[in-house]
UniProtKB/TrEMBL annotation:
Belongs to the glycosyltransferase 31 family. Signal peptide: none annotated. This is Beta-1,3-galactosyltransferase brn. The chain crosses the membrane at residues 7-33. It is found in: Golgi apparatus membrane. It is a single-pass type II membrane protein. It comes from the Eukaryota. Keywords: Glycosyltransferase, Golgi apparatus, Membrane, Signal-anchor, Transferase, Transmembrane, Transmembrane helix. GO terms for cellular component: Golgi membrane. Its main location: Golgi. Pfam families: Galactosyl_T.
Length: 847
């Protein structure tokens, strides 16, 4: 065999080996990437929260894994931060494990057995115990500036340690604080594990108590609103643990008993010993908002340090390295967006990455347990922390840490024994790494309005609700003209037009003979001012007597981002169809998507479709009381609601998944029931005003038990000039008398005199379907803020249009029960019966 032949054989064998290696690698990738997708989509947490039985099993398995105290090490994953997020996936369950993974030297020392620390600990304990009995002075060898802090519990070269772990170099010392830390739920849109193309300027970590759902919701509708952070990219994450079955408020540390009688315990008791009902709510919250980072640790005050370390590890392991700065805060504080943006823009990216800043308190004294006193949440025994003073630390309510420091802290925390007080523990991290703490005068514990005016960035939420006007996304924005005699919050408290004085004037309700006075079609309650003129006054300022009566928060929980996307303002459509849908009507929405919503049926006509819904109502009832009158409902929506358990958790999960799949739901933060239809209408018009006015001249509103015939709809719209569309208000016009309760009982449309004192309604459109032009929607959405609600949405819209002096155009081709002949004659709204029997939905033609 020639040398050339041998060479060819060697090359061939090499190629075969290479192909085999690549084939094996491809198999590993095929196995691995589906697992990454599973973990990234939070499938484990989703499956665990499907039933109480599964949740209990998941808790038991987590406890079993944690008891092993063994963090699996993959030889291919030997650095921190890991070179790939796949290294964070634990082989024992499909979740990210944020315990550090790094190689240990063969002769690595066990930190708990280090001679230096044990000797030091014995001396300190004995001296400190004796000294505390004598007086409160600090022994010399435990000075507050003593380098002895650095050997708590190890005297390590942290610069070298961090460098070694970052570069995969075997470490000479075993970690003392590196247990399993499973991320049961990650915020999917924030620090995405893969395909993450969005890099925010700032990520805000909100340390939240697991039961504090009300505080989280309040944050979402106040300082977290995106429009308050204009031209600035920011993301928010709530970090929390999990509740435990049969949890107690009694804790024991180093032989001392402590009783937590805090808000956490008050909320815990509301759910009883089993926390399954709460977990269902938490799962829905996590799914709807996608801003929860949930760890596998018990969420209590005494695990705040675990929560801090968990947060640092998540940032270091999963967040994009390009994010320069992180802000940490407690959930009982608010932020001031404009001041944070101003502060941020004063620094270069390099400065931000190496920055830290917060509020340095004057007291660093270590509180010791007092016999027979069990309520000190900060008490630490000498054995737990042997000094009399902590190192300097930032108070935990608000502080900033640059990305470079976060990575170092995430590593160092594995080698520093925990103490329960997270603020002080962070101070120890700073001390050990020889990083100087920087006081920031823009962060304070008791800031007020004057501090905010001079650049302060944080407020206690109880303070902020008195001095801040957060104005929810869909609430009317307005200015107020007032003089120096009144403060803004005083006006809001005292002049909100909450009175109903109109019903106290007999002339408005009865004449001298006691006869009913017909409704004079001029104004509607309350009628203090010229509504049309106020539309122009909103920007320049309203008087104190014109503050809106009906301008409560209207929170959009999910937006149909494909429709009226604010980032695509140049995308115009001919029509936006708003389907007023009941929250449980999943089948009706599915049928609509497969029939008239097929875009191919709308030839040479651009149209978008949106379903507007609220939230399922827990423990829903068929009986309501209005002004002392009993009303019973027998609607289809109520019938459908009985298919779901009383908590309606499963319905909320289905709704959330539907929204993600079709992206055509506008979901409001109100209960979806028949008597909230007016709230749904106001919510929808506000959304259109804020997001859609520039996208379309015309909007069609229909009930979800009707369908559209595309050709007839297009033909009808084209009868109007384009100049007419924006000011159009057209539908089936109706005029009727007010239905009153009888003998303490009322039908669904019965309205008492106290609710509406006139005998007739103004003309209004039947709610099954009507057109409103963009100008009409804009004015109506504002007018509704100044007009007391009436629960019959059709009538309420009629009152609004009357107050705006808008003419109602009657359309003959709207029928409550249309037949085939009406369909052929141009009826554009049809029933499901007609849709199934007389329309070919492939072509859109009438059969």
């Amino acid at each position: 065999m020639s040398q050339i032949q041998r060479g060819l054989i060697i090359i061939t064998i090499g190629c075969v080996i290479y192909l085999i290696i690549m084939w094996i690698s491809s198999i590993n990738l095929l196995i691995y990437y589906p697992q990454l997708d599973t973990v990234s989509e939070n499938n484990y947490f989703s499956n665990c929260t499907k039933s109480k039985h599964l949740w209990i099993r998941c808790l038991e398995y987590l406890n079993h894994i944690s008891a092993q105290k063994i963090v699996p090490i993959d030889s291919n994953c030997n650095t921190w931060p890991p070179f790939s997020v796949e290294c964070l996936i634990d082989k024992r369950l499909p979740a990210f494990n944020l315990a550090l993974k790094f190689p240990l030297a063969l002769n690595a020392l066990d930190s708990t057995d280090e001679v230096t620390y044990n000797k030091f600990g014995d001396v300190i304990y004995a001296n400190c115990k004796k000294q505390e009995i004598l007086d409160d002075e600090e022994p010399e060898e435990m000075g507050s500036n003593s380098t002895d802090y650095s050997i708590y519990p190890q005297n390590l070269n942290f610069s070298k340690l961090i460098y070694d772990i970052q570069h995969g170099i075997p470490v000479q010392t075993k970690p003392i604080n590196n247990p399993d830390m499973f991320a049961l739920q990650i915020p999917k849109g924030i620090c995405k594990p893969h395909n993450n193309n969005f890099i925010p300027s700032l990520i805000i970590i909100i340390k939240s108590g697991v039961y504090n759902s009300e505080k989280r919701n309040r944050a979402r509708r106040t300082f977290m609103q995106k429009h308050l952070w204009s031209n600035f990219s920011v993301q928010f994450v709530f970090v929390l643990g999990i509740p435990m079955e049969n949890e107690s408020n009694i804790f024991t540390f180093d032989g001392n008993t402590y009783v937590l009688d805090t808000n956490w315990w008050s909320l815990s008791k509301q759910y009883g010993s089993s926390k399954w009902q709460f977990m269902k709510q938490l799962a829905v919250e996590a799914d709807l908002y996608e801003d929860l980072l949930i760890g596998s640790f018990h969420d209590t005050y005494y695990n705040l340090t675990k929560k801090l370390i968990f947060s640092l590890r998540w940032i270091s392991g999963l967040c994009p390295k390009q994010v320069p700065l992180y802000l940490f805060m407690d959930d009982d504080y608010d932020l001031i967006p404009r001041n944070i943006i101003k502060f941020y823009n004063n620094y270069s990216e390099d400065n931000l990455r190496n920055m830290s800043g917060g509020f340095l308190g004057s007291s660093r004294t270590v509180f010791r347990p007092i016999p027979d006193e069990t309520d000190s949440v900060w008490a630490m025994t000498v054995k737990e922390f042997p000094w009399l003073f902590y190192p300097q630390y930032y108070h935990g309510f608000t502080y900033m840490i640059g990305a470079n420091l976060v990575h170092r802290f995430a590593i160092a925390s594995a080698f520093i024994k925990e103490i329960r007080i997270d603020d002080a523990y962070l101070g120890i991290l700073f001390y050990k790494l020889n990083i100087t703490l920087v006081p920031l005068n823009i962060i304070g514990d008791t800031f007020h309005k004057k501090n905010i005016m001079t650049g302060g960035i944080n407020l206690r939420y109880k303070t902020s609700q008195n001095i801040m006007n957060w104005t929810s996304d869909l609430r009317i924005h307005y200015n107020i003209q007032y003089d120096n005699y009144y403060d803004r919050h005083h006006l809001n408290d005292d002049y909100l037009m909450r009175n109903e004085s109109y019903i106290q004037h007999p002339v408005l309700t009865r004449n001298a003979k006691g006869e009913s006075v017909a409704y004079i079609l001029k104004e509607h309650c309350p009628n203090y001012f010229n509504l049309t003129a106020s539309l122009q006054a909103i920007l320049s300022g309203l008087s104190i007597y014109e503050i809106p009566i009906n301008n409560d928060a209207l929170i959009a929980m999910r937006l149909p981002s494909d429709t009226c996307n604010p980032c695509s303002r140049n995308k115009k459509v001919d029509l936006v169809v708003i389907v007023k849908s009941c929250v449980y009507c999943f089948e009706q929405r599915a049928y609509a998507r497969t029939t008239y919503m097929n875009k191919d049926l709308w030839k040479n006509f651009s149209v978008h479709f949106v379903f507007t819904v609220g939230l399922p109502t827990p423990n829903e009832t068929s009986t309501y009381y209005f002004d002392g009158v009993k009303t019973s409902l027998t609607t289809n929506s109520l019938y459908l609601s009985t298919k779901y358990e009383s908590s309606k958790w499963s319905a909320a999960k289905i709704l959330s998944n539907e929204s993600k799949v079709y992206n055509d739901l506008l979901i409001g933060a109100f209960y979806d029931n028949y008597f909230n239809l007016t709230t749904k209408m106001i919510f929808t018009l506000r959304w259109i005003t804020n997001f859609c006015i520039s996208h379309s001249p015309l909007f069609l509103f229909i009930d979800d038990d009707y369908l559209l015939h595309p050709n007839n709809t297009i033909n009808l719209i084209r009868k109007f000039n384009k100049s007419q569309l924006k000011s159009l208000a057209a539908g089936s016009v109706y005029f009727g008398k007010v239905d009153r309760p009888n003998n303490g009982y009322g039908a669904r449309w019965a309205i008492s005199y106290n609710e509406y004192p006139w005998d007739y309604y103004p003309r209004y459109f039947l709610g099954i379907g009507y057109f409103l032009g963009s100008d009409v929607v804009h004015d109506a959405s504002i007018a509704m803020a100044f007009t007391k609600q009436l629960r019959i949405d059709d009538v309420y819209l009629g009152i609004i249009l009357k107050r705006l002096n808008i003419t109602l155009t009657h359309l003959d081709n709207i029928h409550i029960h249309p037949g085939k002949e009406q369909l052929k004659s141009g009826a554009f709204m049809i029933t499901k019966y007609l849709a199934e029997n007389y329309v070919n939905w492939t072509t859109g033609l009438i059969k």
